[in-house]
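Review the following:
>
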Amino acid sequence: MPRGITPRKPAKSGRHGGLRTATKVTGKVAVSSKAKPFGGTKRQASVHSAPKDKTAKSAKGYKPTAPERVSEILKRLDQLYPDVTCALTHKSAWELLVATILSAQSTDVRVNMVTPELFKKYPTVQDFARLEPEQLEPDIRSTGFFRNKSKSVVGAAKKIVSDFGGQVPENMADLLTLPGVARKTANVVLGTWFKTADGVVVDTHVHRISRRLELTKNEDPKKIEEDLMRIIPKEKWILFSHQVIWHGRKLCFARSPKCADCPLENICHAEDKTWSTVDRHAGAKA
């Protein structure tokens, strides 16, 4: 038997403890030869060798929604996405409203493939108002949930023509009276087209990333919006939503987010990170 290695004796209880594994030293970091890559990736060395940010630990007194931390998040988002806006193609408030309704449970890419021909076929809100939902269904089928979306679009067109003189309302209260329009859709139209900050758009990306960054602990979109409105300056509400949505498309994916490439990584403590230089917090996840 090689010198220096002594087998462990059986425990008196009759059960054996786990065997100690030999370690190999790389630089100053000892890595178990039997350790599996963190998260099943090949970033083993990076995870173990990355220095921890001592200032970002979950020590007593840490407040994820502290003004200085929120300000730093906004600063880094500004550097990453300085001039982003809504990715839905549109030329009017009505076109944006339709595109936003169609984007539910779909992608902006898919919607942008559908709307050019749709608006060419029906150029005005009055054209949509003359339709029956069944007539619109074939044109928007590929966006999914096309029956409900057809009812919403046609219903919204009829109400805009009958109650608002053919013009999309410019305030939250009136927008919410339109079929198929909830706060998310209304905020998109108000913020992107009318440049009115009445709230924060909470789509699937904002929902996920706000929870990962511990800006909210809520699951309900309305409560998430209320939390974000309390901690984010009003003048940043519109841009913040666009930035987080783009961040969700580029880096912070629902599955396997690109944490190693994310400039927010060292101030993010999400439990489901794929790579981390800071302590992860239980429950800080999407």
User: Anything to note?
Assistant: The chain has two domains: 65-84+197-286, 91-192. Strands lie at 23-26, 29-32. The longest helix spans residues 146-163. The chain has twelve helices and two strands.
